[in-house]
Amino acid sequence: MKVLIVFCHPVPDSFGAEIRDTVTTALSDEEVRLIDLYSGVDLPRDFTDADGAALSWAEAAVLVYPT
Amino acid sequence: MARCGTGRFGFVDLALVVVAALSPDGRELRHAQIVRGVLGESRIVETIDLVAEGVTPAMSRTERIRYETDEPIVDSVIAVHADLVARAETMVFIFPTRWWSAPPILKAWMERTFVPGVAFTLDSKRRVRPNLGELRSLAGVTTHERPAAIAAGGDGARRILLRTMRLNAPRRVRNEWLVDADEATIATRIGRL
Questions:
Q1: Positive or negative CA dihedral for B93, B96, B100, B103?
Q2: What is the maximal distance between C-alpha atoms in chain A?
Q3: Chain A, 46-65: which have a CB under 8 Å from a chain B CB?
Q4: Model pTM?
Q5: N or C: at which end does chain B have fewer Cβ atoms within 10 angstroms?
């Protein structure tokens, strides 16, 4: 299955990042793409055409973020 | 009724109006004019226009890391805002409902200003203790969402502001919540605070 993981947390070594890694490992048999909204920068980036394409591509999505 | 004249301790009470002016038609700013006028009859009114002040609609990594420290406020503009929050007797939030909740710019601002040492403190057992000692009245004015749509999807902003934020006040807090209201209704209901 095509699974899109969307991850949003500002701190690279956060508990949220651990959850993202756990999810990724659990889905290792699937075709996975990751969108990291902070992606190593100080503030989250804007929506891009590539994000839209990834949403269209995905059959399932997992959102990992703090409430 | 709001305390008139000189108020408690010989000072006039402070009302803080926080506006997320995100709608292209300028509706939030027009509502803010009405609210300021009504509150100004009995209080000193300060307004924070989140868009005009360039508030970033997400927490940065630096801010998130500092949040866990004894000095959670990074930005000098936010420090001024937090001081107003700490002193406010009345707070009114004016914003469009987005995704059945407060818009990101307002959430990010609250995350930065309603921090430990301002909105609440943690006791020795790390339990939350209210710290907004002046707060008596709280209101939300939300635009651009039909009441029926909010009834169907839930009102996250109301939950955040009225149920949770009131826990930061040690006393009972009078409140008003206005969804897609006309200006006459806004004036009447804000006047009750």
A1: negative
A2: 32
A3: none
A4: 0.89
A5: N
